[in-house]
Amino acid sequence: MARTLDDIMAELPKERRDFIEQRGAEILNEYLTLQELRKAKKLTQKKLAESLNVNQENISRLEKRSDMMLSTLRGYVEAMGGKLELTVRFPKHTPISLKGIGDDASNL
After folding, report:
1. Whole-number average pLDDT of the chain
2. Which CATH number fits domain 41-108: 1.20.120, 3.20.20, 1.10.260, 1.10.287?
């Protein structure tokens, strides 16, 4: 009989299971879309639009875009109470945080 993932996880020590579950959650959180991020914060498009002084249609279009100005993205994130940080990662180098890019959130 084939073993399920639940069976395999149950056989692991608790510390290992906890680590795997925590890392899995971290990986999922790293790849949320804007829509998923908004929903995770329990915000509707309408509520977010009100925070940004735009109409709900603008939020809908924004969430479907794959390319946007950083200032627009920063405004979207800040309207949810977050902070946008840009980090550059090169192999074998310490991550570098970029400052002063996209600071103008008036481009929504």
Report:
1. 86
2. 1.10.260
